[in-house]
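Sharing a chain and its predicted structure for anyone who wants a worked example. Both blocks are below, sequence first, tokens second.
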Amino acid sequence: MDNALSAPTRLWTPSRVLITRSASELPHTAEIVRRCEDAGVTEIDVLPGDRLTGLRGETERETYARAKTTMAVVVAPPSALKPQPIPPSADWRIDLAKGCPAHCQYCYLAGSLSGPPITRVFANLDDVLAGIGTHAGRGTITSGTEERGHEGTTFELSCYTDPLGIEHVTGSLAEAVRRVGAGEYGDGVSLRFTTKFDDVTELATLDHGRRTRVRLSVNADDIARRFEGGTARMPARIEALRQLALAGYRVGLTIAPIMPIPEWREQYGRLLSTVADALRGVPDLDLTAEIITHRFTPSSKDVLLSWYPGTKLEMDESARTAKRNKFGGVKYVYPKDTMSEMRTWFVEELESVLPEAQLLYWT
């Protein structure tokens, strides 16, 4: 692969940007507006109040289409500013935004975010990032553990958004990486996020202090091509992974959601081999892997079918095992034999093809 940074294959630019009155008064909003204008956004409206209106269309499909082309700049409420535990990924969750511009037919956010799937960017960035300082040294996933203690206190940025997918019109991710890299919140903290996008040009130039781990979400070709609309193609993601590793970032693979599709061993085997080729020769490589099987809930299935009524995504409860949590909620996962077979294969293949990768978890 070419060592030169390649042009991004896909960039999401909203058709319209709505700015709430309170958000309009904050300094980070000026940076967001500048980036949006540079990206060619012409419909940027400051609202008279803090309520977002006019988001729904006459049908669910129209509402979805309208929401996916709209970005709102809002103030994160106090309830969103307190970091929350996020096992098994990280010690804490920090949200730069909520909502994602991609069109993944298995979307993890379906059913977990209320209302139309608009992307809401938080303008009170200082308040959002302050939680890193207040929670440094606390946590149970990486802080103080033998396996991952070297990561320090970890803060996950991609629970409710793909921060790289919206970065060229927000600048929030770069600011977080710069601040943590400069040690503003102490030496023992680190950021992490997962992305399906490949515009890493700005990230590669930042003084990140090796305190951010970027994981590229990767999958078998058939799954990525069929179910991951609006994202960077798989070769571009793997090239972005290489560029970030060459820029000194700690990197990772989020292999998700894995599915036992026809010839899944061959397809995932090719994926791992391609990653191995891309990372060969990278100095001081720090590589992790997180493997997540496909699952869904009754509510997420309903939302996804309203968004993608023609989807070929398998969501057959009779072919799954129901798994209940302590609150009575249910999610449908693959049967035990299927899970065991896939886990055994992935663990062995990862050790064989990418022995330098540390498998953080399988779920």
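Comments welcome. Residues 336-353 form the longest helix (18 residues).
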